[in-house]
Amino acid sequence: TAPAEAAPGGETSALAALAGEMRDGAVEVLVVLGSNPVYAAPADLDFAKALDRVPLRIHHGLYLDETAERCHWHLPASHPLESWGDLRAADGTASIVQPLIAPLYNTLSEIEVLAAFAEGDQGGYDVLRAHWEGVLGSDGFEARWNRALHDGVVAGTAFPEKAVKVVPGGWAK
């Protein structure tokens, strides 16, 4: 199948561009979801110093890590076993991720944080269900949704296979 990632590579250059914009004062609000760039970014970016120039910094994560310590707000994250979500397998098949347990504390998943900024307070289940209803359509949605929850995969979402053949000296399409 075609690569699952739209633009593989280039993550470091995008992070470097962000750090540059933060140093230049072009970023007014930064929300960091589930990562620790102060610790993990390449040292030559000096991400911590760039982050300190952002007027409003919000961190969402499981831990009070190096990035959280430099932010004004820390939003405690729900554990993945407490969260609704979706994902894609290597062949493109979409899967619905269901929580194993109810949240133990008053935490938010990444989906709920993003929804709060975009649409107001919504639970992860409601956001996910609304997204998949938009993708699958309203006609017969309830049955398809229940089937996806039961089976663990959303039927018909695999990427189309690409035909390849072996030629001397390499691969050909």
Portion in strands:
15-25%
Read across the widest sheet, the strand sequence of neighbours is 1-2-3
Shape: globular
Report low-confidence residues grouped into runs of 5 or more.
none
Radius of gyration computed on alpha carbons: 20 Å
Structure commentary:
The chain is an alpha/beta fold and 173 residues long. The chain has helices at 11-23, 37-40, 47-51, 66-69, 110-118, 124-136, 141-151, and strands at 29-33, 56-61, 73-76, 85-88, 94-97, 165-167, 170-172. It has a three-stranded parallel sheet. Strands 4-5 form a two-stranded antiparallel sheet. The longest helix is centred in the N-terminal third of the chain and has 13 residues, at 11-23. The N and C termini lie close together (12 Å).
